[in-house]
């Protein structure tokens, strides 16, 4: 069977420096194989050597029959709430350290991060990182209360389209509340809702109507809950056009303008994505190396009984080749 291209994985450089600021993410190294991401005095996430060691990563890729892996930042390091100049420094350091991991093999494809809160700084760091060897950019799905249809973010996305740079959108900074702070509910309900809202913002905010259609943009975690509720959104566009008639077409018209990854874990969920968005818009993603990811990467795609062999090949590899503009 075809080896896959995994468009969704993360890294944390073991050499991440301690930066000023009480809430700046830092890395507390506890052994050769283990560290803790700290945000202020709070433990955020335990990580192991898979996050920084390319040899461990490549061995896991071999075990999962992953030919190529896109390696993106871990979103907690985005620093969108910082002063733009400080965030630009964080992005540059993070992006330079990423190359120390991905330079180990041409099977590892680096995606950079940018200070998205400042459009000019974000565009400048994108250009610098691409010139330095990055193949794309990962962004968070919002900057504070600014969603992806914000004027500055829209300008950044247009710049990505003009430079022919692929964009991977990852949910982050989910709201915290007593009802969401139990059972990882921020990750189990907040992340899907955040991603759904951001795709909707590109539709109803008119971004897909205005931005160059060459924009290559992919959303993590199967696009959140968007595919499941597409019929509801179309119905609202028709029945309450006075309120949400801000796009030229109903939401279902735009499903060929973006891609999603396949980290949905069950065959019925994957079938919904393929039926709703089309097999050309779904790509393998594993969310490696974190525990809410899929191992082996691409398992549901490989085992899905409803896919034809050409569709399976599309999702495992050729859609990602198009997204990454790889020969």
Automatic annotation (TrEMBL):
GO terms for biological process: secondary metabolic process. Pathway: Secondary metabolite metabolism; quinolate metabolism. Keywords: Decarboxylase, Lyase, Metal-binding, Zinc. The keyword Cytoplasm does not apply. GO terms for molecular function: aminocarboxymuconate-semialdehyde decarboxylase activity; hydrolase activity; metal ion binding. Residues 5-324 form the Amidohydrolase-related domain. Its EC number is 4.1.1.45. It comes from the Bacteria. It is an enzyme of class 4 (lyase). Pfam families: Amidohydro_2 (PF04909). GO terms for cellular component: cytosol. Belongs to the metallo-dependent hydrolases superfamily. ACMSD family. PANTHER family: 2-AMINO-3-CARBOXYLMUCONATE-6-SEMIALDEHYDE DECARBOXYLASE, 2-AMINO-3-CARBOXYMUCONATE-6-SEMIALDEHYDE DECARBOXYLASE. Monomer. This is 2-amino-3-carboxymuconate-6-semialdehyde decarboxylase. It comes from Actinocorallia herbida.
